[in-house]
Amino acid sequence: MPASSPPVEPAVPRSLAAAGLPPRVRRTLEAALTLVTDEIEPHLGSMLNEFEEELFRLADQARNPGTESGYMQTLRTFRLNRSDLIPRFILELEATVAATRSPTPASVATGSAARAQPAQSGFGRLSLVDESVMDEGMVMREIASRQEARANLALHLLGQRFGVLAASPAFDTERLPLGPQSLCRAMRGAAQALDIEHDSRLLLYRIFDRHVMAHYWRVLDRLDELLDREGILAGLTYVPVRIRPSPQPQEPGASTRAADADRRPGGVGAQPARGGGTPGARAVYHASDPQRPHTGWMGEPIEGLDGDEQLASEQLQQLLSSRRELLGKLRPGKKPRPGAIIGTEDVSAALAHLQAQPLSVAGAPQTLADVKQTLLAQARQRRGAHAELSARDNDTFELLGMLFGNLDEEIRADAPAAALVKRLQVPLLRVALSDSAFFVRSRHPARQLLNTVAESAAKWLDDADFDPQFLMPLQHAVNHVVEKYDGNVEVFSVSNEQLQTHLQAQVRKAELLEKRHTEAARGKEKLEVAKLRAGEIMAGVIGDQRLPRFSRALLNQAWADVLTLTLLRQGEDSEGWNKQLELTRRIVEACSRDDAPRDPELVAHIEASLAQVGYHGEEASVIAQRLTSSRSDEEEGDTASRTELALKLKARTRLGEDAKQKKKPLPPRTPEEQARYEQLKVLPFGTWLEFVTNQQGDVVRRRLSWFSPLTDNALFVNQRGQRVGEQSLDSVARMLASGQARIVVAGHARLVDRAWQAAMHALRSFAGLGDKDAEGAGAPA
């Protein structure tokens, strides 16, 4: 019998002209490709220039002639082939876009260096993985993963739009044309044109990350705007479900401040939908809206939160002026006699003296109120008993005092970084006195440093969330500011840059660890999908045929596991699957016919297949005999043997089954819980949630790394990417509805922003203004 040749897969188009796409789809994809290539091409040029300079530098610094010769040879080869890289990159990128409607994954359609060969059956074709291939793939996956985490929401929206262009379900980030993984595959394929060694390619990829991918998130925003103008899901944006929460009884020891924060706009908890108020009402937010889900890691900057600084500053001054007027009216009696005003320069000079004084010194000020009293006492000794701060400086003291007071409620006093927050009080006070933008600019260097240090001591961090190795860089950064700051805010920028280097290293580790857990969770989902599909096919094969009850049970359990494993490993279009499907038909026929002859070959196949899912020896032989026999349960002679086998099957853990996960059925979800469930299903991967841990309202922050609407499983990790557990979407939805969990939004994600929002809320309340009056302010509120 001649060997059957494998089916020939249709050729994947390598250009838009050859893709045979509808005119509108082709025109839109051409515009998208042109936009991306025009945006990226200048950065590719600068990448090549730096790569050439780096090769020359490495050759110049080489310690032996052999290494120097190797670098110079690579440099000569690079200069010879350099002009080929950008055109090759664009061609690879076009091939990705051209395959938008191809059933073949884009990872196969592009990247000639990474194309896989057709799988061959049998162990004779197995070989060790080339370490260089594995290294390059890992480097490119890390680069793509960082961009996916940074622009998770934008990629989610683009996946929906490209799904429309492809006339298919939404694309995930792995298959998304012009997505980060597509760009990395295109670069890996284009790098082959340079004909350079493996280590040099890795150097090129790192420079590609710095020069090209660092600007990628801006390209995504422009690409999303382009597709919106082209009418591809026009007006699409992230749409969280907004629900009016039902009143919850307040526990005697619960934190009233946490409840107040939830009631404010921008809070972590759910807010009533403006203008609606009915459960399930939906509100639309733009990608830059502070209400969007927060997906970044600790210490990473959040884009799009800074507004109009001048407007925010004017509104802040109005609030402070109203506060002074009200305080003046509330103070009875005569106005105090005016005294000498202490100049801001004199205040800063006095603060510089305090800044150089260690906190451990006896009598050293511990709080901003102590600092203020110390300054006033010293000034009044020299200038008279009525010397006062200027109104502006006094407001600065008050504002920073409110900010640090709110921070104190958000950080753990026993955290290693808590003392570092106090050390920053005086330098930050000097910054705020000289630069009022500190209060209204969320990305101010001094404010960013304070946020990084404060978040390292946040109450939402569990003991395992903080990396002890990060404490030393924090101490160095704070010491650098305390020792070096003397009016130049660049000192904070330097400390920020040093911390960002360590934070990015932590983020890369966390992302790699998270990716492993996510892949494991996806593997479980694939197994569940295979089980469901195998069950459907089994039911179709059996149909209405009458089978002995015990034989049917064996088919639905033991043999169903065989089909599940085959489907999972080889796929529904494979030769192995077709073979097992034919065996299934023969088994059903043998069990349903009274005159079915014994088939030793069928028995042997069944035993071999059962061995792959854990049935061995006599157990597999007994099952195989039953699956090839039409004897009814009453005709079976050895009832004890059948009963023993049934008990063994009942006690056996089936393929992919976790006995610990068996839970009692829960009551149906309420309308509010159902709305929360629907909200969870559209959240981008990486969204942070806060879970209430006790009656005092303390929370712990967890990252929703992955979830499956099919299996209802949700994977959560901590700040270090460590798996902290899996929950069902159903249980999380019920917790959201009951107030035991909250979705963290971008405008309320950073600790300093939360503390500042609380301070602004207090000022508005004091002035008799509601939060609604603050809409449009530049500062988050």
Characterize the structure shown.
- Among the domains are: 23-114 and 131-229, no CATH class; 338-488, no CATH class; 520-655, no CATH class.
- 56% of the residues lie in helices and 4% in strands.
- The chain has helices at 23-61, 65-81, 85-98, 106-109, 131-150, 152-165, 180-191, 198-211, 216-229, 256-263, 309-330, 344-355, 368-383, 391-410, 418-423, 425-434, 437-440, 445-455, 471-484, 490-542, 549-570, 575-592, 600-611, 617-627, 639-651, 671-681, 729-738, 751-766; strands at residues 341-342, 388-389, 687-692, 699-707, 713-717, 723-728, 741-743.
- The strands form two sheets. The chain has a five-stranded antiparallel beta sheet with strand order 6-5-4-3-7. The chain has a two-stranded parallel sheet with strand order 1-2.
- Strand 5 and strand 6 form a beta hairpin.
- Helix 11 crosses helix 28 (751-766), helix 12 (344-355) runs antiparallel to helix 16 (425-434) and helix 26 crosses helix 27 (729-738).
- Residues 1-9, 105-134, 239-285, 633-637 and 772-781 have low confidence and may be disordered.
List keywords for this structure.
single chain, 781 residues, 5-stranded antiparallel β-sheet, two-stranded parallel ribbon, 28 helices, globular
